[in-house]
Amino acid sequence: QGVLVPGLGTFAVVRKQIDSVEEMYVVRRPVFQLDMDVSCLRELMFPMVMIPGDIEITPLDYWWLSQTTSLPPDVVRNCVQETILLYSFQLRDRRNLTFAFGDIGVLSCQDNFLCMRFHHTCVAGLESWYPWVALLLT
User: Fold this and answer.
1) CB-based burial label for 29 (10 Å; 0-12, 13-18, 19+)
2) Inter-residue contact 81 to 6 (CB < 8 Å)
3) What digits encode the pLDDT tens for the residues 84-106?
4) pLDDT tens digits, residue range 1-23?
5) DSSP string across the chain
């Protein structure tokens, strides 16, 4: 399953098969597929992540966020949109700010490379059988 954050990108959990000499592992790991305005990304490098077509992608649930924050859905939507817009302006102006996503990870730009780094607790929390393999892949 994945979540589309309009103007920023898609977060998803994908399965990856790893063959080792001794055995085969299938692990779940988080990925982030960037989907920002290209004018903000000029001269920036970022990893090309492709989310498989069989993964269900749902839009960010502003209503659910409004219930957890006690703010009206339109206020939550506007806050998210304005925050993404502000971050894209910061990227365009070559300011190396980080964009933290709670318990998920950090989107950061260093030396013209934009990268989503997932917290180890997020990765390990998704994969209960082989968390160390998922951590190595992420």
Assistant:
1) buried
2) yes
3) 999 888 888 878 788 899 889 99
4) 899 999 999 999 988 877 777 77
5) -EEEETTTEEEEEEEEEEE-SS-EEEEEEEEEEE---GGGSTT-B-------TTS-EEE--HHHHHHHHTS-HHHHHHHHHHHHHHHHHHHHTT----EEETTTEEEEEETTEEEEEE-HHHHHHH-SS-HHHHHHH-
